[in-house]
Design brief:
InterPro entries: RHH_8 (IPR041088), Ribbon_hlx_hlx (IPR010985). The chain has helices at 22-33, 40-54, 56-65, 77-85, 106-112, 126-131; strands spanning 69-75, 90-100, 113-123. Helix 4 (77-85) packs across helix 5 (106-112). By secondary structure, the protein is an alpha/beta fold. It folds into two domains: 22-54, no CATH class; 56-135, no CATH class. It has six helices and three strands, in the order H-H-H-E-H-E-H-E-H.
Length: 137
């Protein structure tokens, strides 16, 4: 796929919110205070990575079975114009980040994107996301 300046960086992160019980939160704060972790976020990221590592084989098998792109997949306007010129339509399936360039028009997106399945995050303009809402699973 073509590179573009507005392309998201692979190191970007998505903010999430979680609710924790007071005892769990207190234990996290204790470990931070004792120097095991630099802050709450450091502990939570480490715990999540450890769990993902525990289930790495299942993730790999599922990615292969569902034909998912693992990581980041970016679609520029030129990419979609080439797909349109070839008379093709996309079925976007990504585990990670799927992004559609900000200069992609609603018309081009509708003409070239048949469906979108993303486990992670989808970055696209609000108007494109709205137009494709019925195709996002």
């Amino acid at each position: 796929m073509a590179k573009q300046d507005s392309k998201p960086k692979i190191g970007e992160s998505e903010k999430i919110t979680i609710n924790l019980g007071l005892i769990d939160l207190g234990q996290i704060d204790l470990l931070v205070q004792e120097g095991f972790y630099s802050n709450r976020t450091d502990l939570i990221r480490t715990a999540i990575r450890n769990q993902l590592g525990t289930h790495a084989d299942v993730v790999k098998q599922t990615v292969a079975r569902k034909s998912l792109v693992l990581g980041m997949q970016h679609y520029s306007r030129a990419d979609l114009e080439a797909i349109q010129a070839a008379g093709q339509r996309l079925q976007i399936q990504v585990l990670g980040l799927a992004s559609i360039a900000s200069d992609v028009s609603v018309e081009l997106a509708l003409a070239t994107i048949e469906s979108i399945f993303v486990l992670g995050a989808l970055h696209a303009s609000t108007v494109v996301k709205t137009a494709l809402a019925g195709r996002i699973h």
